[in-house]
Amino acid sequence: MKKAQVIAISVAGGAALIAFYFASSFIQPPPPVHVEKQTVDSTQVLVASSDIAVGQIVNEGSFRWVAWPKEAAQRGYVTQENGGESKKRELSGSVARSALLAGEPITQTKLIKAGQGGVLAAILPGGMRAISTKIDAKSAAGSLILPNDHVDVILIRRMRSKSGGEEVVSDTLFRNVRVIAIGQQIETKEGKKAADAAATTATLELTPRQTEMMALANAMGEITLALRSVADLSTDPAASGGMDFNKQRGSAVRVLRYGAKSRVYGVN
Known about the structure:
This protein has helices at 3-26, 84-91, 119-123, 208-220, and strands at 42-48, 63-69, 95-96, 111-112, 129-134, 150-160, 166-182, 201-206, 222-227, 252-257, 260-266.
């Protein structure tokens, strides 16, 4: 190798070392990561071990204990401190009055002990009544009304006009009424888009005064249920266009036969 080539290689190597030295001085190593461990005060909360459907009878295998932040544990939760295993055994055999998801904390308001009423009575809100009416595919939106849908209740009846002819009259009795059950079905099953076509009754959630009106309407004519949009739901009767039957006012329905009044039904 010629002397000039050796000198050139030496100079290039020295330049590379100098460049590496200066580059290294500019590159700072990453700062050390400090991990701070905080101890969270927790408690053991009783939760559903799997999904629980409305009306399902639960047993001890339906529950499990999980660690839960103590400050996030609500007063109604079942914990090791407020009952523990004895409370778990006490809840065994209860009926679910609302659906529970796996991992959801158990509360006594979501379960009812056997002998304290049936499933329907368990899921019915306080102060409300359940009453059924006959339905078919024509009067129930083609059997597409499902439990927990909201409907308007329409009464269709035939009356004699003053001229002696017969006329058909329709009245919207109630608006925005919750459907509790279709036939024996009280919960919408996953993936099911229609009710049982063989179901012949719909059970509605009404106030006591509305229940009286509904019983009378069942005897007067045919009932049709009009399905409401989920975007149109409201708990305010005035806002939904319905009548508030909780107001104290006189009300009566006159039944006409062949143009002559035969009876007056009061609903006070």
